[in-house]
Amino acid sequence: MDDVDLNSPNVEISDTHIHPWDMIRHGLSQELDTDQGLFQEVCQRAAQDLGPVFIQSVNNAHEFFEALHNNLSNDEVLVLDYLIALVKLVNLHSHQGSQPFENVLLKYRVKLTKHRDECARISRSKAEEFIGRTKDLQDVEEKLTGKKYQGVAICGLGGMGKTSLATEVCYRLQHARKIWHIKSIDMREKDDLIDLLRDMVGEIGLDCNSTEQNDLQSELCNGLKGIKTRTIFFMDNLDDMMNTAEKKKELLCFLEDFCQDLKSMGTEVRILMTLRQKLVPEKTLNESLSQKISRGAERLSGLMFEVELSKLKLLDGVNLFKACCRRPFTPAPENEVCQNIVNLCGGSPLAIKSVGAAVRSGKVIAEMLAKKLEDLPDLDVESNCLAQTFDTLDKSKQHLLAKLHVFGTAKFDLAFAAFVLGEKSMDEETPIVFGTSLNMIYLKSRHFVEVDDLQKEETDDIKTNSKSAKFSLHPLVYKFLLKIANQVEFEESVNEAKSLFVEYVEKKTNKIFEDFEKNCVKAWKELKDFKVHLKTYYELIQKSSPEFWNKGSRTVLTCKRVSEVADLFLEDYYKFRLLQKCIELSKGDERKFLETALWQIHLGKKFFESDRNEIAGEVLNCVLNETLHNISPDLSSDELGQLAEVAGAAFYLAGKLCIQDRKYIEAMHYLEDTEQLWGSKVEKAVGKKYKIDLALVYNSLGKVYANMTPQNLQKSKYNHFKAFLFAYRISDNFNNIDIPLYIQNIGRCSYREGLEFEKLNKKEQANQSFREAETYFRHAMKLFEHFKMEKFDSYAEVLRSLAYVEMKLRQMGLAEDNILKCYELRKKIMSPPHEAITLTVHDVATVRIERAIYLYWDYFENKRGDEYASINKLYEAIADYEHLMHLTKLGGLPRNHPEYPSMKRSHIWALTQVKETKKIEKAIQFYKDFESGNFEEKRKQKRSKKETTRFFYTYDQLQTMLAAGAFEGATVSACSSSESSSDSDDNVPESPKPPLVTDTPVTEDLVLRKTRLNFNYVFRQCPAKEKVRYGDTSSDDYFIEENFEGVNILDNFNACENLFDQVQKMECDEIDELAVGGSNESNRNYGNNSNSEPPTITRE
């Protein structure tokens, strides 16, 4: 093939020289004319998209290109993209050898794109794309690159071309001018200012883990100071961030502050945004209803310039329509007809392009099209116009579009589209997406599908282009397709697409969670990018019928993953709805009883996490005594494995309930049962799939031992080490999401050791243990932040643990700061009544009382500080306890809770110190009423299943309502708390107990009925079959085997200590760089014998 040198003088941008596309066509024609068989195959496949008329007059490559250009698009790059996908599909090779013809075309695409760059550099835009927008294009570019404004906002109704205009400006400035760097942020799927800030911080190469707006703005401002190049933040589709007056006000305030910062810094950083609304406060809009807001004006105190795109002028609309429907050698429609069509389109560029594509297809003429539009109501102009183009598509393309509506307006990649359209299997290493690629390019030529213009930014890297390409539906196109999908004709295709969509999301979820166990940082990012599709998935479940839901082959492990992902993204109310719906759907098929049981277990788990242990126990009893009560002995080997998974999950939840209920011996038995089931040889795949879950079981066993006797403290620490090392061996460089939890619990063991040393009056050893605990807690915090888990309760718990150890080290200010952070986080993510919130308020009060005592002695003994500082701190603690009384009254604490005596005693003591007689009487009366059960009926009502599963507010939202008088007699304190207890004198509140200590007996037991599943019975019903598969299963210790293959470091406990000596000295970044492996090996296995004691931990 003759190569085309686009750098030669013959390819200059001039009307008198040869266009590069003509030279490319010449070279490609030579290639195609070489092999007539392959040429005919290419023509036949193209005819499937462009119609059989397409090939009737095509006899050679030259005529093929004429017909292709005539029927597809005037955009040469789009035509070339179509050819690339076409030759991939037919697997063409170059006549010069084995080189794929696709590679030949890719080289031409790079050259053609360079020509486009040159056109953009001299402001010669694509004729079809920006007719009527040339002035707007120049205005935006001039205002954006000038020194007067810090940014430009492009606003206007849907379909006016806001994103296309902004993208073209960015393309010119980055690729053609090559003087600006573009940071693109798409906000179509986001409505939170925090998301915008975090994306902006990430775009400049920083990683701020805070969830507070002030912290993110500060980090962004600091990062901007280091930018030395000209940079534009392109924020597309900000509409969702302005869907309420409050959100709009918040966004406008941020934009004004941000622009002011840019101006004061003197940096060459600009912002470009697209949105439908004007940058005018809602209040101003309401006051100006009678007068028009200026179309192009300064906004935000003159810091930004706003360009409003309105409908095209008649002449511009006519020119655009003619360009879109232009067919070579075919006369253009008459002006009168064109003007009529433009008026019927309402001057909307999207509508005009759509009807132009319909005429271009050759299946409808302009006069007929105008007549059709005149007969339609003008309530929805864009939909009317899209319908005309839709009618020109063949039935296969119409059904394809109906299927694509399942994506909504969210972006999706080619692999996802291919799966939903039924082209590929997700299990294939190299997905076959050629047909889908061809279809998507064709639909783009008909203006139904948008393609992410990130491709433009990476024209020199072809592989990156194909991977980064994202498709989406314009909101107006989606609105139209939603109506189409509801038609009976497309019902079967749409249901098939929904089913494949559900299957893809479930497989993707499984894959992401497998990655989560190894590298949660990478998986977390992938999960967040996939979040919008998960939302669609959950919505599909809510609308599903049992027939639709049960026709797939869903495993219990998939159900587990779906539930776990929902925990990360769904509010409690929606998670309860999801689980209840899944139970209802799976009950529709009796063969799905294991799936039903798994959903029920996760519903019980959700009640447990919501501090509704009684309801969780009821759900669990239902699983053990009803769903799994009459198990058929005639189970397949696959069903036996899934039964082990489900039973393990049930026993694990039972163990956690018993821990919460302080029934530690029974908890130990349940957890040991779980360990045996998930680590058994009944189904080796179960042990493999649940290896990371076994770490959680060992962690829970560590909690059990920690709460028994001091003599069991070594067993507790051993089990937490065991959990850590299980996760460590599976993960890449400590990047497992649960590892910070295990490190924190090892720190709690050190804290407990310090308390034991205190009892023996060994202060030096106690302080050493406390400092060791502090180190563990701080490393756990760093990992939580590294994993972006600052919004989770596990992060709040490590803050609370750190506060307690800081009190022991007399770092009172730090202790109060951390316990307040814990409280602030919990009130954002939890809804009262919740025991954790109530105890956190108690913790804040306890820390403040301890600090008051410290301030008192520091002033009177050391003559430092303020005389009234201790009194003020006591009053803060009293305010906390007044708030605590209200939370307790609402059901936040049971009467028999072990922390209740400490709460009552500390409250009365604080009131006594400040001599608040009236408040003392009021508090004593409250505690008498509480102990006598006067609030019990209200407590049960607030904690009922009905109240728990209905929509409710977070604690933060509820506080606002309380302050506004939503509940009579409610008082709200700006204070916080966590769990504590004390060793006391008569007049001084006790110092806090360790976070895990709860040694007060409880009388209000959660009753788990004693029915236990006899799995040995189930397996022994078919001993011959199972003996062949698993060996002898008759012995009682069949399930006792523990497999530590590949985790030899557990066998040497000193090696555990040595490893953690390394870990606790590392910074978070160093942990990431540590290579996995290098573990010491030995032969002992303490887990195989339940009576064996772990070796004593030695200290250096």
TrEMBL record:
It comes from Magallana gigas. PANTHER family: HTH-TYPE TRANSCRIPTIONAL REGULATOR RV0890C-RELATED, REGULATOR-RELATED. It comes from the Eukaryota. This is NB-ARC domain-containing protein. GO terms for molecular function: ADP binding. Residues 1077-1092 have a biased composition (Low complexity). Residues 134-286 form the NB-ARC domain. Pfam families: NB-ARC. Residues 975-1001, 1077-1100 are annotated as: Disordered.
